[in-house]
Structure formats: C-alpha cells, structure tokens
Amino acid sequence: MNIFLHEVKSNLKSLLIWSGIIALMIMVAIAKYSAFASDPEMLKMLDAMPPAMLDALNMRAFNLTTLSGFYGIMFVYFGLMGAIAAAMWGSDLISKEERDKTVEFSLVLPVSRNRVITAKALAALINCIVFVLITWAVSLVAIRSYKPDQAFYDFLKLEMQAMFAIELIFLAIGLLLGCAMKRYKLAGSTAVAIILTTYFMSIISTMQEKLSFLKYFTPFRYFDAGNLLRNGKMDSMYLFISAGIILVCLAGAYWIYNKRDLYI
Amino acid sequence: MNINIFRHEFRSRLKSVVIWSVALTFLIVFFFSIFPAFSADAKLMNEALAKFPPALRAAFSMENMDLSTVLGFYGFIFLFVQLCLAIQASNYGFGLVSIEENEMTADFLLSKPVSRAQVLTSKLLAALACLTLTNLVVWVSSFVAINLFRNGNDYESSTLIKVLLSIIIFQLFFLCVGLVISQLVKRIRSVTPYSLGLAFGSYIVNAFSGVFKDVKLEYITPFKHLDPTYIVQNGAYNMPLVLINVIVTLIALAASYWLYLRRDVSAVS
Lengths: 264, 269
Hints:
Radius of gyration of chain A: 21 Å
Number of strands of chain B: 0
Structural class of chain B: mainly alpha
Oligomer: heterodimer
Largest sheet of chain A: none
Number of helices of chain B: 11
Shape of chain B: elongated
Helix content of chain A: over 70%
Largest interface: A-B, 42 and 33 residues
Radius of gyration of chain B: 21 Å
Number of strands of chain A: 0
Largest sheet of chain B: none
Number of helices of chain A: 10
Shape of chain A: elongated
Structural class of chain A: mainly alpha
Helix content of chain B: over 70%
Order of helices and strands of chain A: HHHHHHHHHH
C-alpha cells in the first residue's frame, strides 16, 4: 500500500502534464470543429451521394460535419497519446529505481518482489484510468453546446474503452521492457522503438492490400474508429489478441522481475 | 571547442546514430517499395477524386494527396522520416548537458580547465556531427530507394534536394529547443518522455492543421514550417515559416548559452 501511494504521488505530475496536453488538444479541436458543424452545403452534398459509396470511402465515420465523424478522426490521436503515455509510465516504473539509485532501498524493505511490482503496476493502472476519464470528461464538457444525441454518447463511450484497451496493451509492454532490459536506459528507447514501429505499421497496413496482415501486429489498428461506429462494438477477435498480449507481457514481467539481477 | 570533449561525446553517441540510421534506411526503403503497386491505384483514385466537388475534397483533406507521383509519395513518407529525426534530435538536445547532472559527472566535467561556453560548444558540435551523419544516411537511402522503385516515373531532382536540405534546419530546431528546455527546468530525470512529448506534440499539431485547414497552428510546429508536401508542390520553401523556424532556433541557442553559463549545477553530495 505504501509503495502504491508513493508511486501514485510521484506519477502525479506526469499525469497532470499529459492530461493538460490532451485537454488542450480537445479544446483546440472542438474550436475548429465549429467551422464544420452542420455546414448545410456539405450535408446537402453528402445526402446526394449514394450510401454505398459513402461506406466504401469510410465517410460515415469521417464525416466532419457530424460529431461522430469528428471524433472518428480524433481517435487516432487519442490512441497515439494514450499509447505513448502508458508506455512511458510502464517502462519507467522499474527502471527509474535503478536510474535514481533507490533500488537497493526499495528491495530491502520487507516486501516481496511480486508485491513491489503489483503495487507499482496498480499505480500505473490508476494513471491510465484517470487519463481516459479526463479525456472523456473534457470531451463531454467541450461538446456540450452541440447537443449531441444518445448515439454519439454511446460512440464516445466505445471510443474511450478502445483507448483504454490501447493504453493497457502499451502499459503491459512497457512494464515488461522495464523488467527485462538489463540497463535502465534501454527500457525507454526500446519503448520508443516499439511505438514508432507499430504506428508506422498501422499506416502502411492501410495503404497496401498485400501488407494488410500487418494489422494483427499493431495495436493501433485493433480498434478502428470506422468499425467502432458501424458495428457499435469492439471486434472480439482483436479484444482476444489484446488480452493475450497483456497477459503474456504481465506474466513475463513478473517472472523476469523475480529473477532480476540488479544493475547498480 | 575542445577536441577531447568533442571526441568523447561523438563516440558515446555513435551507437545511437547507427541505430537511428539503420532504422531510417529501413523505413524509407520499406515504405518506398510499395510505391510501384501503389502509384497505379493512386492514379485511379485521383481520377475518381477529381469528380468530387472541391469543397468536399477539402473537408476530407484529400485535395493535396497526389500519391501517384514519385515526389508526392516521397513527401508523404518524408513526414515519418521527419518524425524519427525529430525524436532523435530532441533526444540529443534534452540530454546534451542534463545527462551530466543525472549521472553525477557534472562536477567532474566542470572542474576541468575548460570554460562552460567551450563545453557547450564542443558538445553541440559533436551532436551536430552525429545528426549530420544521420542526415547523410537519409540522403543516400532516399536516392537509392527512389531509383530502385520509381518504376520509370520521372521526378524533379532539384525539388528532392530541396526537401532533403530542409532536414538540417529541422534537426537544429529540435536540438536547440530541446537544449533550452533542459536548461529551463530544474532537473531532467529521463530524457525520453520529454523528447517524445516535443516530437509527437508537434507532429500531432501538424496533423491537426492538415485535417482542419486552419492556419494559426502552423506557426508553432516545425513539421508545418518545413512541410514536405508544400515543398514538393511549389518547388520552394514556405519562406516566412522557415524564417520563423530559424529565428526560434537561434533564440533557443542563444538562451541556452546564457542559461548554461549561469546554471547552478549541483555537485554530488
């Protein structure tokens, strides 16, 4: 419990900074959305197009004149921010003790290593939850004046769940890296490498039919805003893959951390 | 300029330079290898898109996307190259002098008979040398990738050179801004979150202004100052924005010297 509280406290500043950034981003975006909201000319144009074509071009999801379409575009950035924040928190948990030379201190406490890592992981989990809740709350406040319908609220809820799932995946990966990397500096840079690679893979997999198999390897594509809007739920296969990644990473992290030789 | 500091800094970064260069080469070649198949599709897409009303294309930010030409496609990839370069350069910038305080080597370094200005200059030049090395790798791999996969399509090599020349301005911006931020805060515990924040932050702001077609945000992000799509389309830099970029870099550089010469560097206790 003490470790948990200590971690929550020491992560508070970083959480506040990230929340500030995402709140700012939502406000700026909503301010710009006002230029597109229910532009009658645009709506007329969209109505005139055959629905099949709209679906083919993914324009339902990315129709900027509606709030849902607008949030469909925003989702990519939510996912990206959540992934970076979670990966940083996860990889920093273990490695910062060695960097700040406090690891001998925390490991001579009468607490098993399993409990240390559990407390730390829970603290980071709290961070992730708060981060999503703040994103959600700021969104709700920012869009208030557009009086969205129930369907949008459902979509927003789904999007936030998807963002949380992405965060969890990267948190687990970051945690594993923090435990597995012998030198503390490597944990952060490997996390950066994984974020960049998966992000680039998510882009390239949409561009080329032949490379679309890559979508199984990048969490950014597990939850596609277009699909979320059309199906009203997350794809169960991808949820399954996500759960698998999280469990494997967590198990690996516990296993490795228990046998870890300290780098002092 | 002190040759010993320079050499030490350069050597300690060499591994990171090699990793970034290999990653960038891989990125460029891999992304460009889908160009031959993609350009044919893109031509069909362009024809289909041309039938849409311009206002609609603008709303879905499709009007600038000409991915069927060599340079149009290269400009699209170059954005991701820029993202990597931004992370690398801000990594070096944030870590340039703050790493000494983190690793308790600051008092060792500063007790040497070398002025602080000299320390900073040697470190900056070493970082610049490392960035230039990466820069050269990007030049070479871009030319190689384009000539391997252009599939007989022609391109304007002077425009490509202009795009590639923008790299050094871009790198210096992140190096200097990272450096000045590291001097403004009390202590940088870990470089990565800062550099990711700076690089991805400017990247997302740039993507935003692309979607929403608002010009105000353009002024704050280097991704927009040196927008490859703009350079490819116009065959020239967006001069006012480039000037803003250079001025910010110079101010950050001057401020870093000013702050570092006066910085209270805590000794190991």
